[in-house]
Amino acid sequence: MPKGSEELTNARKTEIIAACKKLYETMSFKEITIKEIGNVTSFTRTSIYNYFQTKEEIFLAILQEEYDKWNKSLTDILESVEKIERMQFAEMLANMLSERGLLLKILSMNMYDIEENSRIERLTEFKKAFGKCLSLVEECLKKITPEMTANERTTFIYSFFPFVYGIYPYTAVTEKQREAMGFAKIDYKYYSVHDIAFNAAKKLLEIK
What we know:
Helix content: over 70%
Structural class: mainly alpha
Distance between the termini: 54 Å
CATH architecture of the largest domain: Orthogonal Bundle
Largest sheet: none
Number of domains: 2
Strand content: under 5%
């Protein structure tokens, strides 16, 4: 880690992460390199290695940011909403995921490579944010469905979170994919992130 203030270190990390996110809007995960990221930051490519050893670590930092934002939304619910109905919570989950398009994209497309090519300390920091999200959802479930057993809450969490990994491909469809669906004569119904998440949450919460 280079010498300098904590503020400078955090500012440079933020700039690197922002540059990577910007590139990811028009480039694929495979196309993005440390060199490409360095080309759109205010310092050299070599300097990036002082903060992130691989591009996967940068993407892991993006994911951690996304989970931190999700965690804030869940915390706000727990602290500000006195009573939550099941339908209301299903709607809240759907809205939160609708705002996490970048999270959904990375989870569905590149998660294994990102974790495999990140240092254990970086991965551990990310897992803390992920684990907090699991815990906050469980706390919300305790609040809205006190009659739920611990096992039922676990079943919800380990059904909903794996499901989240698969949302993106069903909601971000390219013209090429649409064309192929047409040629295959598949009458496919396209739903939004909100619709898919809402329907799944309702089902898991046993809302009729």
